[in-house]
Amino acid sequence: MLRSSSFLGGYSRSLSKNKLRPRVLSYRHTKLRYLALFFACMIMIGDAYCFDNPMALQSEIKDKYEVDQFKFNLLYTVYSLPNIILPFFGGVLIDKIGARTAILLFSSIIMIGQLVCVWGASNLSYWTLITGRVIFGMGSESLNVSQNSIMAIWFKDQEMSLAIGLCISIPKIGNALNSLLSPQIYSKYQSLAAPMMVGVGTLIFSFICGIALIYMDYKSEQREKQNQMLLNKNDENHRSQSELSASVKQSVKDEDCDSPDLGRSPEIFATPQHHEEPEEHEAKEEINFKDIAKLSGTFWILIIICMLTEALFVPFLDNGNELLQERFGMTAEQAGLFLIIPYLVASGSTPFIGNMADKFGRRSLLIIVTSFIFLITHILFIFRMCTSACFLITLPLTILGLCFGFYASVVIPSVPFVVKSNLVGTAFGLTGVFQNTALALFPMITGMIFNQFKYDEHGEENEERGYVYQSFFFIGMSVLLVIIAILLMFVDKNGERKLSQKGRGIPKKNKVDYLSVHEVTDIPEDKKIRIDYDTDHRI
């Protein structure tokens, strides 16, 4: 620690009483942010479990309701249809009521939707089931926006790719649990309502986790307000110190002081002056029509990739249970057990892929890798590897899960890299529109393909044939995805190379300037002292 100069010793002792007060750390700047991330992921576990209830019960739903593949896939289409429109308004609503209130509101809407589905399953009313899925979808995507809004604050400028990736992939554990448990529950109770009622239980668990996240976010906000009060007090002290230092400077000039101590002691005695950089506004998943024209060509290519990637994973698995039964001779319970593989692989691989993307960048190359992996996966599903449950079928399912891990950790987190910071909300809003457009259209398209080709040349029904032609469709979409991914790399390479940047944000620093005694004595500029403090006022 530097000693005070003899000339200014009195002032140094006086000023030392007005040091910066230590700040009360916000939870968002501590390891507790990972606990908040855990609760944020758990919010969507129940949603993911209930979303895929139809997939795990596909054969049973088709038999009980006497519907074909197109009408079955309509259960997924109606979920996504409202969410083609909601991103235009969802961010505005969350802005008005706040993300914490929105979590409670949309969690309640999801539970109402699932209860309507339970009612439809009890009465075997297809259109009641459809109504429940519409209500469920309206709450589900909006809850996801609320979750992202809070996590955007907690992980702002630090580990954002990891946080986004985990929020997308960890809830897939809910999909896995549904795939594993729902066929077994139906087999035991012979009722479609029973496994859906278990889904209500998972939603209650998620609701409790939502309350925990809301409490943490509220307490963190209170601590930040306390910080601001301390900083305001410091600013008052700083102004007093500035007046004092100005007085000392004038006194030195008046006395024409040439103290030898000043030449030997390059000390800091004057006041820290905070120049806190303004924080960017929180990015909401909201669309501003005036800003759409400002989005670059790179963004529009990336958004098509997001759309195709989502469509190659979710709609394919929507029919996964029956596909494994018809093509590989499994029972519904066996198919459910195998279908947990892609979800668990996606959840487990995301942290590693996210860290790799944050550390090494080169996202355009990783997106090409993702598209090629999708292509390989759907080619493997063309081959009939076995006629009963066997180990070989785990290979394409594992690779499919890895595909989604790359999607969650690389593709979606690339969006902020290709738009200006003030357009991030618009960009994510449009991404949601295109994703839900794909999730609404692709189930209908695959359902029509299945219905068209499930009859052989003799007019006999052969459901395996319908699934083979579905696989051809997914291969074609995968080839298109590869071509667009390569186009994205060339466009980015010839532009600003935004997708080659490293993704780990660097925390912003608050500049704290100190007047040096050298400034008083006209010492050269390179001898003056400047100290940078981080956001927690540590050197």
TrEMBL record:
Keyword line: Lysosome, Membrane, Transmembrane, Transmembrane helix, Transport
Gene Ontology molecular function: any one: transmembrane transporter activity
Domain of life: Eukaryota
Subcellular compartments: Lysosome membrane
Residue span, Major facilitator superfamily (MFS) profile domain: 1-494
UniProt-annotated stretches for the region Disordered: 233-282
GO cellular component, one term: lysosomal membrane
Biased composition (Basic and acidic residues): 273-282
Bilayer topology annotation: Multi-pass membrane protein
PROSITE patterns linked: MFS (PS50850), SUGAR_TRANSPORT_1 (PS00216)
Catalysis performed (reactions): L-lysyl-L-alpha-amino acid(out) = L-lysyl-L-alpha-amino acid(in); L-histidyl-L-alpha-amino acid(out) = L-histidyl-L-alpha-amino acid(in); L-histidyl-glycine(out) = L-histidyl-glycine(in); L-lysyl-glycine(out) = L-lysyl-glycine(in)
Coiled-coil intervals, chain numbering: none
Chain ranges passing through the membrane: 74-94, 101-121, 192-216, 299-317, 337-353, 365-385, 391-412, 424-450, 470-491
Coarse class of the protein's main subcellular location: membrane
InterPro entries registered for this protein in UniProt: MFS, MFS_dom, MFS_trans_sf, MFSD1, Sugar_transporter_CS
Subunit structure: Homodimer. Interacts with lysosomal protein GLMP (via lumenal domain); the interaction starts while both proteins are still in the endoplasmic reticulum and is required for stabilization of MFSD1 in lysosomes but has no direct effect on its targeting to lysosomes or transporter activity.
Family: Belongs to the major facilitator superfamily.
Stated role: Lysosomal dipeptide uniporter that selectively exports lysine, arginine or histidine-containing dipeptides with a net positive charge from the lysosome lumen into the cytosol. Could play a role in a specific type of protein O-glycosylation indirectly regulating macrophages migration and tissue invasion. Also essential for liver homeostasis.
Name assigned to this protein: Lysosomal dipeptide transporter MFSD1
